Amino acid sequence: MRQGSHEPLILLVAGAGLLALSGIHPRDRFTWFLEVSPVLIGIPLLVLTYVRFRLTPLLYRLIFIHHDRELARFGVT
To answer: Is residue 15 domain-resident?
Structure first.
């Protein structure tokens, strides 16, 4: 990844925004929690390991797209 690339940060902020939107009045709170729990576990791990174990930009984009498509099931996007 290029030095100074802000793409992972932009994807993180956009994903957090979509996650927050999906939590507003979900049909079933428990199901919503079960659906987003991998994100709530995985994203902090990606943030904590970003400096030492950087992934490719393609992989960060694919993770974001997968996250976005999961949230689409809740009518967010």
So the answer is: yes
Decide if 34 is inside a domain: yes
In a domain, 47, yes or no: yes
pTM exceeds 0.85 for this model: no
What pLDDT tens digit does each residue of the chain (77 aa) get? Answer: 455 588 889 999 998 888 888 888 888 889 888 888 888 898 999 999 998 988 898 999 998 888 777 666 655 54
Alpha helices in the chain (DSSP H): 7-22, 29-48, 57-72
Domain membership of residue 2 (yes or no) is: no
67/2 Cα distance (integer angstroms): 24
